[in-house]
Every structure is written in structure tokens, then in C-alpha cells.
Amino acid sequence: MSDKPKVATVWLESCAGCHMSFLDIDERIVNLLSQVELTASPVTDIKDIPEVTLGIIDGGIGNEEELHIAQELRKKCKILMVMGDCAVFGGINTMRNSLTPEQVLKGAYADGATPTTVNPSGKLPGEDIPKLLPQANAVDRYVNVDVYVPGCPPDADAIYYALSEILAGRIPVKIPADMTRYD
Known about the structure:
single chain; alpha/beta
């Protein structure tokens, strides 16, 4: 049994760019990972979220499954950090908010809105995908957040700074502006 802080990270409604930026911490990741016990990540098969010191969410919330995951992680972590503009502000996912969930599904699956959609019967998905919420939103619209790391994706230095501060027992109030890029 390890006495290191436990960390769980999930990726919700997003492109995975934030987790790629986390990997861009490069060799500093070895130092970070030596200080924590990584209990869950997007590459593990998470059935139940364990009790952790730090929970990290990348991505916004747009369906019932994502909402459930965010609520469960919030219940089971002492500190919740969100990273990336989708988690912090809602991001590009909120572009669907002027439509109803039904219009979104019809446009994606039945109207041939995407060149790769092959659905000649026009059948909409049912229970095989999580039910869409009326709107996609930032994580703090549904659960309390302790640390925000904005950026699309956030700069690796900003993520490293936030994690280093948390591991040192401090909650970063503001990520230095020169560590957040908006290219």
C-alpha cells in the first residue's frame, strides 16, 4: 500500500489534446509520476472510480455518462482539477447548444451531415449511446472545481506548474499567463 497521493484522470467530451499536452511534460513526467500513485486514466478500463487525492478532468460534459463520471470523481477526490478549454469553458462542444439533442443526433446520424456517415435507413442511435444532455457545458456547471488549467490544449508547462503546486500542498489560484497559449 502506497502513502503517495493517489491520482485519477478522465477524459470526457474532448479530443484528447489535453492528455497529449500532459505527455508533453516530457522527462519531467518521471518526476511527477514518482510522487504519485496513478490509479485510473483514459487508457485503463475504469469501472469504478477509486478514492483519490487529485482528480483530473479533461473535456466538457454533454451526456449523462459524462455527468455521472464527473459527479463520481468529484465525490471521490479531495482536489478536482480541470484542464483544457472544453473542461474550463465548455469549448467547441458548446457549438451544439443552439440545437436540441434530437437535432444533433439527426444531423450526425441521419441527415448525412458528415461524409463518413453511412446510415441509409436513417436510424438514430438508442440506448447504445449515452443520452445527450440539453446542452454541453463546462465541468463547473455541474460540480465544484478547485483548479482550472485553461488552453486548447493547455501548455505542458501550465499543466506541470499546476500539478507541482498541488503536490507541494498549494492550490494554484491562477496559472501564469505566459504558460497558457491560444494559438
